């Protein structure tokens, strides 16, 4: 069995993140740890009482739930979900059924699509035909875009194709509960969509349907989505299994994920 890490690391001053999402890690080394241990063990003398004269190492991390590789819950998109089949209480990240976090990994290669392209149901079906796959309930569908190579640069959130409202609903209607992308967002890049919005406003014909349309699809049918994945080019279009359990943060809109794929050898 071969294991492929699909998650990006959390590190200080990550470029390409919004300021409110930029992680900050404060490192405490072994010498500082030895000092801290004196609060628990009075009169401790590190050189005499601790192996190597050192104590523990720790870190304090400050970041948003949407920093790094993470999974969005329907609560992130709206206060309701499943309006198409019967509106119900919206799910937060701690409520995802665990069985939804393991499944066949289906990877669509979108590198031929220009940055900002909005995938339609027809586009999705064509990509599935290209790899000879029909979506099944429990599949976890992920997008391999042009964005991954820009991770760690200020340009990261400007790249990649995304999925529109109808394309997203088309996927979810097949019984897919979890999707993912190696781009900054499941939607087309926000800066490029914002540019389109400004154009429609300037023409005095604003088009609100383009605003966060892939995410807002969750109002009609709730689903979970992973963003900022990596290494999707290292797994086959079909045949791998993905494990993607989000951290259990009570009542939260998202949770960090250590997504991993396994490939039979």
Put the structure in a nutshell.
The chain has helices at 30-37, 46-49, 121-130, 165-172, 190-202, 213-216, and strands at 2-5, 24-28, 58-62, 70-72, 80-81, 88-89, 102-109, 118-119, 140-144, 162-163, 178-181, 224-227, 240-243, 254-256, 260-263.
CATH architecture descriptor name of the largest domain? 3-Layer(bba) Sandwich
* Total number of strands: 15
**Distance between the terminal alpha carbons, to the nearest Å?**
5 Å
Bin the strand percentage. Answer: 15-25%
Radius of gyration equals 21 Å
- Total number of domains: 2
Going by helix content, strand content and strand pairing, the class is alpha/beta
Give the low-confidence spans. none
SSE pattern, N- to C-terminal: EEHHEEEEEEHEEHEHHEEEE
Averaging pLDDT over every residue, what do you get? 96
Tally of helical segments = 6
Instruction: Provide the CATH top-level class of the largest domain.
Output: Alpha Beta
The helix content is: 10-25%
**CATH homologous superfamily name of the largest domain?**
Putative cyclase
Tertiary shape: globular
The biggest beta sheet is recorded as:
9 strands, mixed
Strand order of the largest sheet: 1-15-13-7-9-11-12-4-14
According to CATH, the fold-level topology of the largest domain is: Glucose Oxidase, domain 1
């Amino acid at each position: 069995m071969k294991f492929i890490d699909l998650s990006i690391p959390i590190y200080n001053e990550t470029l390409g993140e919004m300021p409110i999402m930029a992680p900050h890690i404060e490192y405490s080394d072994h010498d500082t740890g030895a000092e801290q241990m004196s609060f628990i063990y009075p009169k401790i003398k590190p050189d005499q009482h601790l192996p190597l004269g050192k104590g523990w190492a720790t870190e304090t991390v400050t970041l948003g739930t949407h920093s790094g590789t993470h999974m969005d819950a329907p609560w992130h998109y709206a206060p309701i979900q499943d309006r198409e089949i019967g509106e119900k209480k919206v799910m937060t990240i701690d409520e995802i059924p665990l069985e939804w976090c393991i499944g066949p990994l289906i990877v669509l290669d979108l590198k031929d699509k220009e940055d900002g392209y909005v995938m339609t149901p027809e586009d999705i079906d064509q990509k599935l035909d290209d790899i000879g796959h029909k979506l099944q309930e429990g599949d976890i569908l992920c997008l391999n875009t042009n964005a991954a190579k820009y991770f760690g640069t200020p340009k990261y959130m400007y790249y990649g194709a995304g999925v529109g409202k109808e394309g997203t609903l088309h996927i979810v209607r097949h019984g897919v509960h979890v999707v993912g992308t190696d781009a900054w967002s499941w939607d087309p890049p926000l800066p490029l969509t914002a540019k389109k919005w400004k154009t429609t406003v300037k023409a005095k014909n604003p088009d609100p349907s383009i605003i966060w349309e892939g995410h807002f699809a969750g109002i009609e049918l709730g689903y979970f989505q992973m963003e900022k994945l990596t290494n999707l080019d290292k797994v086959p279009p079909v045949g791998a299994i993905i494990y993607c359990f989000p951290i259990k943060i009570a009542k939260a809109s998202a949770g960090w994920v250590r997504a991993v794929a396994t490939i039979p050898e």
